[in-house]
Amino acid sequence: VWAHHMFVTGLNPFLGSIFVLLTLLIAVPSAIKVFNWLTTLWRGNIRFTPATLFAIGFVSLFISGGLTGVFLGNSTIDIHLHDTKFIVAHFHIVMGVASFFGMFAGVYHWFPKMFGRYLNSTLGYIHFWVTMVGAYLIFWPMHYEGLAGVPRRYLDLSGWHNFNKFGDLNKMITVVSVIVFAMQ
């Protein structure tokens, strides 16, 4: 699967097509995991505690990040999206935010069992909703920017006529990032 990082390096197109197939096949076990997680909840007596919400939020982020991975597994689309904000958004939703949601679910679930003290549920619900909404407000606009070709690793895009229109969107992403970070 690692070779999908090589699509823009001059990799032989025939080899590229093999790695497209192998990269997209990774979606099969991932989809099975998601169906297992969702069917575990099916017809259950679910209590929406902060731990449960963070666990369900993890599944949501895993699905949305995984669907954007399907784009990147296709070599012809990846060539356009390579080194854009789309990559930043995909990677951080799957590897960053989803991981933190799993960690928060574990902390909210196990802390009372380990230490015999309950965490404040109201603060837990606020923590979940600000983090969940904030995560999507930060990273979904980056997918749009990446599809428009906005490159990553540039401090100032104002000199690029095509990317001037994203200045306000980037300011919004920055403000939401500060709010979510402060919430943590």
Describe the structure.
The protein is mainly α. Helix content is 73%, strand content 0%. It contains seven helices and no strands. It has helices at residues 13-25, 27-41, 50-73, 75-81, 85-115, 121-147, 167-183. The longest helix has 31 residues, at 85-115. It is flat and about 55 Å long.
What topology emerges from the helices and strands here?
Elements: H1 13-25, H2 27-41, H3 50-73, H4 75-81, H5 85-115, H6 121-147, H7 167-183
Helix pairs in contact: 2-3, 3-5, 3-6, 5-6, 6-7
Q: What is the succession of H and E elements?
A: HHHHHHH
Q: Low-confidence segments, ≥5 residues, pLDDT <50?
A: none
Helix content: over 70%
Q: From the alpha-carbon coordinates, what is the Rg to the nearest angstrom?
A: 19 Å
Mean pLDDT over the full residue set: 89
For the record, give the distance between the C-alpha atoms at the N and C termini, rounded to a whole number: 34 Å
**Quick one: how many beta strands?**
0
SSE class: mainly alpha
Main attributes of the structure:
184 residues, mainly alpha
Précis, in short:
The chain has seven helices and no strands.
